[in-house]
Each structure stands twice: as C-alpha cells, then as structure tokens.
C-alpha cells in the first residue's frame, strides 16, 4: 500500500561556481559550475521533505542527512526548480535523465545508496548550453 503523500521529486540546482564539496561518507568531489538535477523520493510527507530541502538550500543551515544536503548547504548552490511525481517513479526518472544527451554523472552512488533499480546515481549534471526543461 502506498502511504498518503508519498512520492518522488526532482530538484534542479544551480551551482554558481566550481566547488569541492564533501558529500558525507562518499568523500570529497569537484563539482563544476552549472545546473544539476537530483531525483529523490519520500515514503511519506513528500511536501515536507521538499520544503526541508528548500529551507536548507535557502538558509544554509540545518542537519545534513542526505547526500543532496551537502550540495545544497554550499553557499553557491541554489534550488531553482522542484517537481513532484508519483511514488515509485524516482528510478524511472533517473534512468531517463541518464539517457539524455550531454548529461553527465558527477559522483557515482550519489543519492543512490538504497536504490534497488541499479541507478549509478540520482544526481546528474545538466549540459551547459540549455536550461533544464521538462
Ligand atoms: Zn534509482
């Protein structure tokens, strides 16, 4: 049974300049400036989860729990878009992102440690030339 208010979400982030960011136990990684898409899911309280991400991105303070928190707490990182999807869609969306032309994987395993569909990551670097659509 799917709980009320469960679902998947996609966040589009903008990193104003290149930065080396420590992502919890995954390690330290060099992130290029530009846009990123992150796909996550919440088993409950989807809207609260997304609001929490947004708060962290805006205030740069709060507990760092998910991999994405480490990126979003960086001073040069801003959330520019958030989209909600049906529960269980996260890996489908992730796979579709992976197939897009020009999309690259900045960090293997990012946000995908408990992913059962075998995604290499749930964070993608969007191509330079165009803004995230869809
Ligand atoms: Zn996945």
TrEMBL record:
InterPro entries named among the record's database cross-references: DUF123 (IPR002837)
Name assigned to this protein: GIY-YIG domain-containing protein
Species this protein is from: Solemya pervernicosa gill symbiont
Lineage: Bacteria, Pseudomonadati, Pseudomonadota, Gammaproteobacteria, sulfur-oxidizing symbionts
């Amino acid at each position: 049974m799917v709980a009320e208010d469960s679902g998947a979400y996609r966040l589009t982030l903008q990193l104003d300049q290149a930065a080396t960011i420590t992502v919890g136990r995954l390690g330290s990684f060099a992130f290029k400036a530009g846009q990123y898409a992150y796909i996550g899911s919440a088993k409950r309280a989807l809207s609260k989860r997304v609001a929490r991400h947004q708060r962290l991105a805006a205030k740069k303070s709060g507990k760092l729990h998910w991999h994405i928190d480490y990126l979003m707490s960086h001073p040069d990182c801003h959330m520019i878009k958030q989209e909600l999807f049906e529960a269980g869609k996260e890996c489908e969306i992730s796979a579709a992102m992976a197939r897009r032309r020009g999309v690259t994987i900045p960090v293997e395993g990012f946000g995908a440690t408990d992913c059962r569909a075998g995604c290499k990551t749930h964070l993608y670097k969007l191509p330079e030339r165009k803004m995230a659509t869809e």
